[in-house]
Amino acid sequence: MIYFEKVSKIYNGDEVPALEDVTLSIAPKEFISIVGHSGAGKTTLLKTLLAEERPTSGTIFFESVNVHELPSSALYHYRRKIGMVFQDFRLIPHKTAYENIAFAMEAAGRPDDEIASDVPHILELVDLAEKTNHFPHQLSGGEQQRVAIGRAIINQPDVIVADEPTGNLDPVNTYEIVQILKKINELGTTILITTHNKGVVDSVGRRVITMDRGRVVRDDVQGQYVL
Amino acid sequence: MHWTAIRRVSIGGAKNFVRSGAVSFATVLIMTVTLGIIAALIFLSGLLNYTLVTIRNKVDISVYFVTTAASSDILALKHRLEQLPQVASITYTSRDQALADFRARHANDQLTLQALDELGTNPLDASLSIQAKDPSQYSSIANFLSTGPALSASGVSIIDRVNYQQNKTVIDRLSFAMHTVQQVGAAIVLLFALASVTIAFATIRLAIYTSRDEIAVMRLVGASNAYIRGPFIVAGVIAGLIAAAVVLLLLLPASWYVGQMTTDWFGGFNFFTYYVDNLGLIFLILFGSGLVLGGAASFLAIRRYLTV
């Protein structure tokens, strides 16, 4: 489904590459945890997949499409296949929980009746049915992250990419977020998360990719958090 | 964009505007100042035009005719002059009218009136007072009068004298001054308009800068550039239109007050009358400027954040 072929990334002025000869293959319905120290290249790897960053060398294929050969006018179509969840939630501050989730559907050109039926359903799924009209600043960190997950899955993407999704959350909220992501994965969506949290990786108990200084140093099918 | 997208963008823009509170207020405030300067420039331009027209109307050349000239010959010459493209208007004063005007002017000067009565005949000439469309055209009118002399039936020139040479220096100076004032006025208007537009652009850029993270998120959730840009343009246009409405409303009491204070000082130019007479034009300029300024500034400002 997703293929990284000898992907390297060197930022201007840096001597050490952020990514070096990364070759990976990700199959549909996998739940992959990417672990590593800060600066290991986890976030850069996700950014190259999202076409936020262009690799210095190598190619990334999403199904049969070379991601970095897509014209900028076609990028938004490509990004609708990937749902993004960030450590700092990145909700639109002046939109309510409902509107933040609905925005992703509106941007994809989905009809009003579909939005009206799907968004409440997703809000229930992430346990926020009571906070539909709350703005992000009126929600706790865990609730904001659940809105972000709702936004990420509303268009039924093939992949959810979560960059440190539990980095700003307490243990209770971390547990809830992991349970939601596992449930989404069980429904058939590929999940790719980066994390520093040993508990998260061990509780998922699925494939673990360990990165160090831009390289993939371990790739265990049923791994544990080992650094 | 489809109608659904246009509707969503419009509603999104309106909500953004309302929910952005302080930023929207600051944008409207700066746009109000900008459009206020543009409105002031409209009034300045009106005052300048009024002054120039007033001065222009005070300049003319007069053609005096010999006392034996028949009025039909004078009217024939008037008709020929009226065919000239440079001529704006011609006023004919007959000998009898000239005498009546003279008597009225010296009604309190018995000595002069007695001297006139003792002459027994009317010593005054009939005349044509000619106004050109532009002061620089008086020389060509004077040229026409000297090269194509008006003759009576007996073949004698009916023109006694033309006062162009006496007035030439004043006319030339006025003509030069008017051109200079027009050019300087246009430069000042352009300069202030540019300065105010730059300030408005900078403010809207700042407003959009505060939303740069939000724009990046919109890109990452798969929104197209047009769909991201739309609400910001709508919010910019709303700010521009509100500012235009505020300026248009404020101009009502402001022009009335300034008009009361300065009409005599500006030689009869009344700001309030000008505002009322040109309300349609001022409305169009202000709302057009608000719409274009708000829309174009948002369009340009957001461009740099759409390359994520």
Question: Briefly, what is this?
Answer:
The complex is a heterodimer of chains A (227) and B (308). In chain A, 33% of the residues lie in helices and 25% in strands. Chain A is of the alpha/beta class and 227 residues long.
What does this structure look like?
The complex is a heterodimer of chains A (227) and B (308). Chain A has 227 residues and is of the alpha/beta class. Chain A has seven helices and ten strands. In chain A, helix 3 crosses helix 4 (112-125). In chain A, a hairpin with a 2-residue loop joins strand 9 and strand 10 (215-220). Chain A has a domain at 91-155. Chain A is globular and about 50 Å long. Chain A has helices at 42-49, 75-79, 97-107, 112-125, 141-153, 171-186, 198-204, and strands at 2-9, 19-26, 31-35, 57-62, 65-66, 82-86, 159-163, 190-194, 207-212, 215-220. A six-stranded mixed sheet of chain A has the order 6-7-8-3-9-10, sandwiched between helices. With 308 residues, chain B is an alpha+beta fold. Chain B folds into two domains: 3-55 and 175-303, no CATH class; 60-165, Alpha-Beta Plaits. Chain B has eleven helices and four strands; from the N terminus they run ααβαβααβαβααααα. Chain B has a four-stranded antiparallel sheet with strand order 2-3-1-4. In chain B, helix 2 (21-58) runs antiparallel to helix 7 (164-209), helix 9 (225-262) crosses helix 10 and helix 9 runs antiparallel to helix 11 (279-303). The longest helix of chain B is centred in the middle third of the chain and has 46 residues, at 164-209. The radius of gyration of chain B is 31 Å and the shape is elongated. The two termini of chain B are 22 Å apart. The model of chain B has no long low-confidence stretch (mean pLDDT 85). The A-B interface holds A 50, 52, 72-73, 75-77, 79-80, 84, 90-95, 103-104, 106-109, 111-112, 151-152, 155 and B 2, 4-5, 8, 15-16, 19-20, 213-214, 216-225, 227, 307-308.
